[in-house]
Design brief:
Layout (H helix, E strand, L loop, with lengths): L10 H15 L15 H15 L12 E6 L5 E5 L4 H13 L7 H24 L11 H14 L29
Antiparallel strand pairs: 1-2
Length: about 180
C-alpha cells in the first residue's frame, strides 16, 4: 500500500458509496448475538453521525492538496510514499508535549519557552524528513544559520534551487505583535 496513493472522494460520491456498503450489510446478523449488525441504538446514532460528517465535507480530501510525500524508491524503481493523512503524526507531537510539560509547578513562562523551543525543533525535523532539507542539518537547531546556508546554496544554482518553495524569514516584515506570556496590568 505504500506504492499507491488513495483519494477520499467528494461528499456526493462518498455518501453514495457509504450508503451502498451500509445497505449491503445492515440486515446481516451477528453470528454471536443473532442480532442485526446495525440494530442497536448506538449503531444507528453512529450511522447518522457519519452521514452528517460526510455531508459537511469533513472526510473528503481537499482538492489540489497532496496527502502523500515521496520517501524512497523500491528495488523495482517504484516510488514509496508516506501518507500524511490522519492524526498519527500529531498524536506523536501531542504525546511529546505532554511529557515535556508534565510537572505541576512549571511557570507559564517556562512552559512557553519549552514549547516554543520544542516546536521549532519538531518543525525542523519535519523539514528534513518530509520536505527535503538536507540530512546534514539533523540535530542542528540554529534556524538563522540554516536559513543563511540554504540561501547561499540557492545562489549557486539559480535555475533549480535546492528547496524550490523555501521562503526566507527576511521576506516578512515585523508586525510589532508580541508573542508569549505577558504580565497582567
Amino acid at each position: 500500500l505504500r506504492r499507491v496513493r488513495r483519494l477520499v472522494p467528494v461528499p456526493p460520491d462518498l455518501e453514495k458509496r457509504y450508503l451502498a456498503v451500509y445497505e449491503a450489510f445492515k440486515d446481516i446478523e451477528d453470528s454471536k448475538t443473532g442480532k442485526k449488525l446495525f440494530h442497536s441504538k448506538h449503531a444507528k446514532c453512529a450511522h447518522k453521525s457519519f452521514l452528517k460528517h460526510i455531508r459537511r465535507n469533513c472526510i473528503s480530501d481537499i482538492p489540489f492538496l497532496s496527502y502523500y510525500a515521496p520517501i524512497d524508491m523500491d528495488k523495482n524503481g517504484l516510488t514509496l510514499y508516506k501518507c500524511l493523512r490522519g492524526t498519527s503524526a500529531l498524536e506523536g507531537l501531542h504525546q511529546k508535549l505532554r511529557q515535556l510539560v508534565r510537572g505541576f509547578s512549571n511557570s507559564p513562562r517556562l512552559v512557553q519557552a519549552l514549547v516554543s523551543d520544542y516546536l521549532m525543533r519538531w518543525n525542523l525535523n519535519i523539514e528534513i524528513k518530509i520536505r527535503g532539507l538536507h540530512k546534514r542539518y539533523e540535530g542542528f537547531y540554529d534556524g538563522q544559520m540554516i536559513e543563511e546556508d540554504v540561501e547561499n546554496l540557492a545562489e549557486w544554482n539559480i535555475e533549480q534551487p535546492r528547496i524550490s518553495d523555501w521562503i526566507s524569514t527576511k521576506s516578512f516584515a515585523d508586525t510589532g505583535e508580541s508573542f508569549g506570556v505577558i504580565d497582567a496590568v
